[in-house]
Amino acid sequence: MRQFSKTACFDWSGANGKRQPGIALAICNADGGVQNISQNGGWSRILAMQWIKEQIDNHADILIGIDMSFALPFCDLGAYFPHWNDSPLSPSQLWQMIDTISAQDAGLGINILLQHHEISRHFRHGGGICGDKFTGGMGRLRTVEQYQHEIGSGRSASCFNLVGAAQVGKSSLTGMRMLHQLNGQIPIWPFDPVPDSGPCLIEIYTSIAAHKAGMTGNKKKFDDDEAMTEAIRALNGHVLKLPDAPIPNRPDKHVYDAMVTAAWMRQAARQHENWTIDEKFREKIAKEGWTFGIN
Hints:
The protein is built from eight helices and five strands, in the order βββαβαααβαααα. The protein is α/β, with parallel strands linked by helices and 295 residues long. It has two domains: 6-70 and 185-274; 91-180, no CATH class. This is DUF429 domain-containing protein.
């Protein structure tokens, strides 16, 4: 299995605005050291995409994980948007459609998309508004998310649910706009094979890293320096040292998630089983993708 010199994690956000406080980036180096990569004024989705493009231009030896879903459910009902003639047939078509409809939304936003006369019908929106094609319950799940439930490795949210702190729909839809704009410039696993050199994108869930680092029970977030440092030590033996508080841009829960996940990715990327998906899912991942580390 290819050994990447660095691993990076973006904790992602679907929030409105020019900058998204929920975006954080951390990099784990080959020696296990983890660094928070801050941005003056905070990260935005556009700045994040520009950073990824820099890795592409530099042919960086780096594995980049993004905390989002790379596609919508398809296999459960045979379509991303059932009973709609214009429903896309592949992830790349889905990304293109989302980006095209949202073209007038700045900052990779998706407000226009969620007002689309047909697409909006499939989502649970805020304010008690629920599309007539939303399936009820937690909403539709991809094959990988259904599999997570079956093996007891967590409960993933549905991209069709846009309500609540745990919703992943907005972050995933905004991220799909970026995937369309990056598509063809960087391999996106598992739709593309892992390249022999250069950067590669994968879908990750920070909660998986938290679990692997010893987070148990209902708690899925690290909320202080000590807990994060212990988690990183548990993952790769590296002792992280942070400056004493108070300092500007003190790490928050998003930074903690990104740093722990980047550390987990370093060792997880070296394990062949994390790149191996059961053959019975092969046709399904071509439509829906897969979350790295679920096996």
